Amino acid sequence: MADALMSEAVSTEEILQMVVFHLGGEEFGVDIMGVKEIIRVPEITQIPQSPDFVEGVINLRGRIIVVVNLEKRFNLKSKESDDNSRIVVVEIGDNVVGMIVDSVNEVLRIPVSNVDPAPDFVTSNISRDYITGVGKVDERILIFLDLASVLDRKEVEEIANLA
Asked: Does a structural domain hold residue 2?
């Protein structure tokens, strides 16, 4: 009887589905519901006088998408794009933005009980404003990001004007 109650409790626990990616030597996760798609890095057209973290724009099936380099945005050690690099396409308000990451590893299902609030002292160089929590998966620690908060309202408007 206790086993049946325990398995029911486990099966009703809320599960998060997170897209896991690498960036600047760290492992991050974002809620899969915020991700429109993940694509290989195509040729990016640079935009003069854009913020330094904006790589440029791409044509995604007829739609112009601004591409942000998250390493530059977070002031992390930047690496050149390679075959593993990907663009995570997200919707921020009414705008669709691409975010370059070093690689996308997997989609993980993580019980909410394995997620803690962002600690006061975060070892990553990323501002707590972007961090929604820290997840424990086996021996791994994942930093959960809110990609919608990576850009403030002014930056989103500026990027919308670029596209």
From this structure: no
CA gap 32, 106 in Å, rounded: 11
Structural domain that includes position 85: 14-162
The string of pLDDT tens digits covering residues 11-30 is: 567 988 999 999 988 899 99
HSE of 99, CA atoms in CB hemisphere, 13 A: 29
Sign of CA pseudo-dihedral 146, 102, 65, 32: negative
Residue 115: inside a domain: yes
Residue of 160, 151, 157, 140 lying closest to 28 (CA atoms): 140
Task: Answer yes or no: is pLDDT of 118 > 80.
Answer: no
Q: How far apart are CA 67 and CA 57, in angstroms?
A: 6
The rounded mean pLDDT for the chain is 82
By the 8 A CB rule, do 64 and 56 touch? no
Which stretch of DSSP H or E encloses residue 152? none
Do 29 and 20 contact (CB within 8 A), yes or no? yes
Q: pTM here? A: 0.81
